[in-house]
Specification:
Length: 227
């Protein structure tokens, strides 16, 4: 019951944050969306800052669960393409990230600290994983740190493109395919996918799915959660 209530609040907060940003989000608005009282929300999340940070962790848990059926790291390009496809089918996940990134750029707390630390953590983790697999230089010739930064910048930019593209809901495989093909070239791990390959198209459904049970462990990070 406690887990269900927490997830109910987190799902409501995810939707409110995606629509209003951190400054525009209130505990009262989250409580109303969740069908609870203000005190009902504060019982689980004693401050708005704590709620925001747990929403961001919730977002990552959803990504990890989605990738739990894959052998993450065996097909880097496919992993990142799948992460983009997942967010396209749950737009609030990408919108929350974009809202937090915008607030971080202007130095607003607590988004700034979280996003800065997360960006560095993701780059370092991916660079270390690539170095472990390929050594100092990848098959493409790029160094592991350069490839890690380039891949994450690609995924970040693609998120902004599809969020602003009115055709993205109709052509759901386009942006995952772009990521799949480009990451393959950046890493030099294989040739770009054929036009018809990549993650299967997903319906653009939202809000976020429930994570349910603890997700199966991966290599420690979801490959494209950004921020």
């Amino acid at each position: 019951m406690v887990l269900q209530q927490r997830e109910r609040i987190l799902e409501a907060a995810l939707e409110v944050l995606a629509a209003r940003g951190f400054k525009g989000t209130s505990i009262d608005a989250v409580a109303e969306r969740a069908g609870l009282t203000r005190q009902g929300v504060l019982h689980y999340f004693p401050s708005k800052k704590r709620l925001l940070l747990e929403v961001l962790d919730f977002r990552e848990a959803l990504h990890r669960e989605n990738l739990s059926g894959r052998q993450v790291g065996e097909d880097w390009a496919g992993d990142f393409a799948e992460a983009v496809a997942f967010e396209q089918s749950h737009p609030s996940l990408a919108i929350v990230h974009s809202v937090m990134l915008a607030e971080a750029v202007t130095g607003q707390e607590p988004a700034a600290d979280y996003v800065q630390q997360r960006c560095r953590s993701l780059q370092d983790h991916l660079a270390a994983s690539l170095t472990e697999r390929y050594g100092d230089h990848l098959p493409s010739g790029l160094s592991a740190p350069t490839a890690a930064a380039a891949v994450l910048a690609l995924v970040e930019g693609v998120h902004q493109l599809w969020l602003m593209d009115p055709e993205a809901e109709l052509e759901t495989d386009r942006y995952p395919r772009i990521v799949r093909d480009t990451v393959a070239v950046l890493l030099g791990t294989d040739s770009p996918a054929d036009p018809g390959t990549g993650p299967a198209p997903r319906p653009a459904t939202d809000p976020a799915v429930r994570p349910g049970a603890d997700p199966a462990p991966t290599d420690g990070q979801s490959p494209a959660t950004n921020g």
